[in-house]
Amino acid sequence: MKNFILAVTSLLLANSGAIAQTKPKPKEKAPTQKEMQDMMKEAQKQLDDAMAGMSEEDKRMMDSMGIKMPYMKKAAKDVSKVSDKQLATAAEDENRIVPKKDIARIASIPKQVTDARMENYIASIQKKLMGTLDAGLIKMGDKIFSYIQSNTKNSNEAGNMATGFWLIGQPQLAMYVLGKVCTNDAANTDNLSNYAAMLSMEGGEHLAIPVLNNLNAKFPKNSTLLNNLGQAWLGLGELLKAEKYLDSAIAIYPFHPQANMGKAAIAKSKGNTQKAKDAIKKSIQHAYTQEKEDELKSLGDNVSSTLYRLPRRTKSDALNLGGFRTPDFPFNIGGCIQAEIAWKEYFIEIDLKIEQLTQLRENAHTIAVKGKQQRLNTDITLIKDAQANPGKITGQFVSVPIYFPVASKKYAAYLGLFQQKFEVYKTKLMAFNKEALQLKIAYDDRMKKLRKEDSDQTGLARANEDYCPKYAEVSNKYLDAINSQMKEMYMEALQLKKEAINESAYYSLYMLWPDEFEVAKIDYQIEWLRFLKKAFGLPTNGSQYPFISITQFVCEEEEEEPYDSTRLQKFDDVSCQYKSELNFVFAKIHNNCSRMYTKLDLKFVEYTRYDDFERAEGDTYMKSTIKISAEIGKGKNAGPLKVEAKAGVGVEVEMDRTGVKDISLIGEVKVGAGTNVIDQQLEEHGNIAGKDVVDTTVEAGVEGRISIMSGQGSVTGTGVLSGIKLTEW
User: Which site from 33, 207, 410, 562 is most exposed, i.e. has the minimal number of CB atoms within 10 Å?
Assistant: First the structure.
C-alpha cells in the first residue's frame, strides 16, 4: 500500500506538469482525497482527448509496440481507499532529502562483533534474510553457491563470482550468495566489506554497521570503509555520525563519488545550497551520471564542461590529416606554371579518392540503417517485456551509446570554443581580403601603365623594346606578395579544419553507434579532401586553385622551376581503442566506446528458475561505485580497494538500480595493431601502420579484487532488510 501511495503521489505531484504545463513547488501541500480524484478525472479527460486526436496509423504503431494508455478510473478507485493522512505522509516522504532518525533500528545495532563471532553473526542475518526473499530466488541462490563451491579455488574467487550478480542487476541474489560465501570464510575482508555494502543498500544499514566497524578497526583510513560507514549512518538518519565518516573519506580523496553525494544530501537538508553544489561537482569530477547533473541543476547551477570526462585519446590527429602535404604555392610566373600542373594532378587524385569513398559510404550507410532497425526492435521488445512484467527490469534502452550524454556536452563546449577561434580567423581573413584587394589594384594600375608605355614605344620607327621582362618583374613581385600571404592563410585554415574534424571524430566515437560512426568517418574524410581544394573564403580571383596564378608572361631567358609532384597521403583509421571485459565465469561484461552489455552463461542453472528470481526482485536501492582490479596479490593488508588508488589494471563502474551509468578504465594495457581499414578496402596492398589499442581484461571471477562503495539509499527507510532485527545470534 505504501509503495502505491508513493507512486500515485509522485505521478500527480511531480508529473502533473506534463498535463497542466506547470511545475508544483517541492514542498507544496499534499493533495486531499477529493483533490486527487479531481486531478485523476482531469488527467483521464486529457488522455481521452489525446487518443481522440490520434491517427489510426499512430494507434497501430502504439499497439505494435505494446504501449497501453493508462486507465485513470481504476487508479481513482484504488486512491479512494487511501486516507488524507496517508496521502500527507506519502507526500512528506516524497519531499524528504535525508531519512528520519530511526531510533529503533539504531538501538538494535549490536555493540561489537568480534572476529570470533563474525561467522555466527552473518549466519543469523542469512537466516532472517531467507524469510524475506522469494522461494525461487533462494533455491536459485543455493544452486549457484553449490556451483561456486565446486568451481573455485578459494573464497576470493567465490566472493568475486557472487559479487558479479550485483553488477548485472541482481542485488538480492548477490547478497544472499555472498552471505553464504562469507559464512564459509568470515575472515575474507574483501567479501565482508562487499557484503556489508550490499546489506546497507538493501535497507539493512543497522546490520551492516557492526561488520564495517570491525573492518574499520583493522584498516583505518580506508576511504571505502569510511564512505560505507557514512552511508549506513545516513540511511539510519544519524546525520552527525554520517558526516563524520563521509568527511573522513573526502579528506582522503576529495573527489570521492559517493561520499560527496552523501555530503550533498546532508548539506541540502540543512539549507546549505552552496555546500551541496560544491559536493556534487566534486562527485562528478570522478564519475558522471545524469542524476548528479539534474541534482545540480535543481540547485540552480550547471556542470562545467571541464567536469565531464571521457576516455583519453591516444592521438591528437587520429585521422592523420596533418600527413596530407599539398603541392607548394608559387611565388613567380615559372612557379605558377609548375604549380598548376602539380595541383591539377593533386585534384585529380582527390576527386578519385572522393569517388571511391562515396561508394564506400553507400555501403556503410546500408549497414547503419540495418543496425538502427535492430536497435529499434530491441527497444520495442524491451517495452513489450516491461508491459508484460510490471516492476521487472528486463534491460536498458539502447537508444544512445553509454557515453553519449557526456560526449555530446563536451562536444557542444568544444564547438563554442571553435567558433571563437573561427571568428578570430574570419577577422584576420577580412583584413587580408582588404589588403589583397589593394595589392590587386596596385598591380593592375602598374600593369596598365606598362601596357601604355609598351604601346607607345611599339611600331615603325619606334624602340620596340621587349617589355616581357618588365611585365614578368611586376607580376613576380605581386605573386610573391600575395601568394606568400595566401599560403599563410590557407595553412591556418587547414589547421583549423584539421582540429575541427579530429575533434568531431573523437566525440562522434562516443556519440554514435559503431555502424553509424563508420559512415561519419567517411564523411569526415570526404569533407577534408574537399577542403584541401579550396579553404575558407580565400580571394583567388576566379582561380580553381587556392592561390593566385599568372602564366602569360614567360620570357625566353627565364629558367623553369623544378617540378615536384605530390602524392595524396593516406588517412589513418579511427576506431574504438577503449575496450574492457570483466569475466565472472557465469557472465562476461563487455564495454567499449558505445555500449556496455552483459553476456550470461548460466548453463549450470535452469533458465525458468532464473526467470522466477528475476521477478522476485523488489524495491531496492543500489547506487554504488564498484572497483575491480586485477591485482590480487598486492595490498592484502591494506583493506578494500579504494577509488583514489589508480595503480593496477581494472575498471570502475558507477551504477544504480536501473543499470550502469559510467564505466572507466583504471589502468591501460596496450595490445594489438590498428589497421587503416578504409584505405585497405581501397587498395588491396595498402600499408598497415601499427598503433596501440587500449584494452583491459580482468578475470574477476578467477582472480582480482572487487570493492563496492555504497551510495545513498532510500530516504523512507524501506528495503528488504529494513524490518530485520537480530535479538540473538
Answer: 562
